[in-house]
TrEMBL record:
Keywords: Oxidoreductase. It is an enzyme of class 1 (oxidoreductase). One of its GO terms (molecular function) is methylenetetrahydrofolate reductase [NAD(P)H] activity. It comes from the Bacteria. It comes from Rubellimicrobium thermophilum DSM 16684. This is 5,10-methylenetetrahydrofolate reductase. Its EC number is 1.5.1.20. Gene3D superfamilies: 3.20.20.220.
Length: 307
């Protein structure tokens, strides 16, 4: 018997117990692109100290812009985790050069390794497993890999998750033989039940890597639907589509409270649950996402001091 209907009913009705949401949100991370980072005068004014900032690698973005953004955010005191998409790296030499620049110019010692969205590899690499085995990240303190709670048709065109699960088992085994702390950072989702079921399944499959759950920050509904379709978000897209049919909600900005409250409640009731942290995709703007998280954790930031 499938647990999914039960989980859906529970997640839809559950209210997170007092303190569950702030505790679950503690240590949240966020990602930026060079062009969006330029719009933030000082990250210290909007992010709590120690917030991990991922730098998304979008095809066409110059290496110089990626490294400069990493260095700037690091100077402002935040740990930086750049994306390194295997299929967008033109050669082994280019990979080692990129990593050396991140290390030397921005002090980077952590990275999110992923296959990337290109259908055909630009060069020598087509998977994050090859990046892990390359030796380029030896000595890195932390390495994250991508997770897809609702499947990934680029990897499993038949709609199963056979290849994805096999790859995650390989990465979990790799984590056991490396000094780097490893975790799974997921694509964003909008419904708690499939995410909870996926995380519990990973545990049964022997994949014990901590999960950093991706959620979409506050944004216009139309914006979220556009990104969700482009990024291949699966069944939980129906949550947005259902909301779009409600005229009273259509013009209101989406906020991820429902999924966060449900997952936080599950985590509070099951402390060994595999989702350890939240990662925010600021699809409606970096400041809006940070303000949402800071409000729910009761965080008040002192004015940034430049220099």
């Amino acid at each position: 018997m499938s647990l999914l209907p039960f989980l859906r009913r529970k997640s839809e009705s559950a209210a997170a117990p007092g303190g569950a949401v702030p505790a679950f949100l503690s240590g949240w991370s966020i990602e930026v692109m060079p062009r969006t980072a330029e719009k933030v005068e000082d990250f210290r004014a909007i992010l709590p100290p120690g917030t991990r900032v991922y730098i998304a690698h979008i095809d066409g973005t110059e290496t110089e812009d990626m490294v400069r953004t990493a260095a700037r955010i690091a100077r402002e005191g935040f740990p930086v985790m750049p994306h390194v998409p295997a299929r967008s790296i033109p050669s082994r030499e280019a990979l080692f050069d990129l990593v050396a620049r991140y290390r030397g110019e921005a002090g980077v010692d952590q990275a999110l390794l992923l296959a990337g969205g290109r259908r055909e590899p630009l060069g020598d690499f087509h998977s994050s497993m090859q990046l892990l085995e390359s030796g380029a990240f030896d000595g890195f303190r932390r390495l994250h890999v991508a997770g897809h709670p609702e499947g990934n048709r680029d990897i499993d065109p038949d709609g199963s998750d056979r290849m994805v699960m096999e790859a995650l088992r390989w990465k979990a085994a790799f984590a056991e033989r490396t000094d780097a702390a490893m975790a799974i950072t997921t694509q964003f989702a909008f419904e708690a039940a499939p995410v909870i079921a996926w995380a519990e399944r990973l545990k049964r499959e022997g994949v014990g890597l901590p999960i950093h759950l991706g959620i979409a920050g506050p944004a216009k509904l139309q914006t979220l639907i556009k990104y969700a379709i482009a990024c291949g978000v699966g069944p939980s897209l129906q949550v947005l589509q259902k909301r779009a049919m409600d005229v009273t909600k259509l013009l209101l900005p989406y906020e991820p409270d429902e999924i966060v409250e449900a997952v936080a409640a599950h985590k509070a009731a099951n402390p060994d649950f595999g989702i350890a942290q939240l990662h925010i995709f600021p699809l409606g703007g970096i400041k809006a996402a940070a303000d949402w998280a800071n409000k729910r954790t009761g965080t008040t930031l002192a004015p940034a001091i430049n220099g």
